[in-house]
Design a protein that fits this description.
The strands form 10 sheets. Strands 1, 28, 30, 31, 33, 38, 39 and 40 form an 8-stranded antiparallel beta sheet that branches. Strands 32-41-34-35-36-37 form a 6-stranded antiparallel beta sheet, with no helix packed on it. 2% of the residues lie in helices and 44% in strands. Strand 19 (267-273) and strand 20 form a beta hairpin. It folds into 2 domains: 34-42 and 382-568, Jelly Rolls; 64-365, Glycosyl hydrolase domain, family 43 (Tachylectin-2, Chain A), CATH 2.115.10.20.
Length: 576
Amino acid sequence: MIRKTLIALCLVAGGVAHAAPLPQPAPDRISTPEARFDWFEYEGADPSDEAFRPTPTQYANPILKGTYPDPAVMRVGKDFYYVSSTFAWFPGLPVFHSTDLVHWNQIGNAIDRPGMLDFGRLGLSRAVFAPTLSHHDGVFYILNTCVDCKGNFLITATDPKGPWSDPVWLPAVEGIDPYLFFDDDGSAMIVFNGEPPGPPEYRGHRAIWAIKYDINAKKTVGERKLLLDKGVDPSTKPIWPEGPHILKKDGWYYLIAAEGGTAEGHSQVALRSRSAWGPYVPYPNNPILTQRGLPKDRPLPITSAGHANLVDTPDGKWWATFLAVRPYGDDLYNTGRETFLLPVEWKEGWPIILENGKTIPYVHAKPDLPATTPTPPPTSGAFKVREAFDGKALPLNWVTMRIPQQRWWRLEGGKLVLNARPEAIGGMTQPSFWGRRQQHINASASTEMRFQPTMTGDKAGLVAVQNDDHFFFFGVTRDAAGQDKLVLERRASAQDPVEGVVVASTPVALKGGAPIRLKITARGGAYDFSYALATGSWKTLKADEDGTILSTKKAGGFVGALLGVYAHRASPDPIH
């Protein structure tokens, strides 16, 4: 049973007192129907789970399935901490803990309350990009970029579970992917991806910069300095050097960065210097990690590897977390960019994650570290998890679109209750939606719902969504003739109506609060939609629907698909 506690959107920053709860929606002249969900069950398994079963001394990649991109990991004593991107999903920047680098338990969300950031009407692949973690003198630091919402910022906490402070904005730090590096003498510097020193010579021409940071004054000091222009081999016109980190080992400073963009050309490169401020010399045999150039027809491919973060263990070993994807077709994947783990081998003073030409393994020997006791929900392998809604809050891994400004949900009597509101899931707003990541190529999400529409256009049910222009809605609505129906609606482009296009429907009568069961089943790029009016009597409304519309290749952006519950109240005014 999942009973993790989601910080309830009402914590005072930096303290333990509680502020007033989020306001309830204001009453209006239109009745507000409610959707009640008795439970939500997710189940998934991948071909790799069957083909590559780890032994007790092995772990399985990816270590965090589903859309957990841009992984940042750090060690404090015997404990490892992890944070990843969430873009415009909320709560944002999930924080995980581990002692073995393999099993990760979520302990909080760094962006967990209104007022910290403002996502407005940003697209779901904007807002909070790649975060980074640092620790110094008992304080944890997250540096992050809020793209299209004010720029780079820093938040702090004395406990990684939170609460995290309100953002300190860093106007002198442009671009994306800032990282706070502490040297042995306690001095601090921020490295980041920014514009090149002169006019860009080609698309993707970027640079890595550094600037001093005063941790007491909480501001940057002096002018920035150029560490890397273009990339490790400027003659090849390398694109998008980003995700920079600095680490120190054996008297050398290493600049570790991604290069080549986040698609199939993604890679990781290394440079080093005797000074944190450079000049940096590239490793002669870069990249230190990539999957580009490998045969496209290889079985169960892993592609687009990069954005690595290196961490040492107490016994002096080194490991790297990084992102990669698992396509089910030609660069088609709905699970987003996931987190993988591999050991780092140091050769002649250089860190190597994976030699060029080698494929990322699905199983590998575990680190020799104290085992972490996993707590639900799982993050890797094949699994089933059921949320009974009998806790005090939703699980930490559940998210909604953008940042709620009012409380439109509640947990009551073992049910999740959503107020149906006019905000639509395709309308670039903050709708009544809660969901969780699709973590497997083959997966299903099911629920039991009670919902009675009160006017034409009211709806509630399940949603599979990648962004505002690419989603499926599967649930109950009322048509213009006053007939309640079970419908499947699909939105596959910005040109489709906001609510999507009806691709299948059937009349349904749910009098007296009778429940209906709904299920979405993903099989790679094919999605099935089933329902039951009585226990066990599942019927298929539509099979083999084109689920590739939820893939990054077709929907764009940087996120994977989410599966969740949704309620919508028809607006008295036309949707524009």
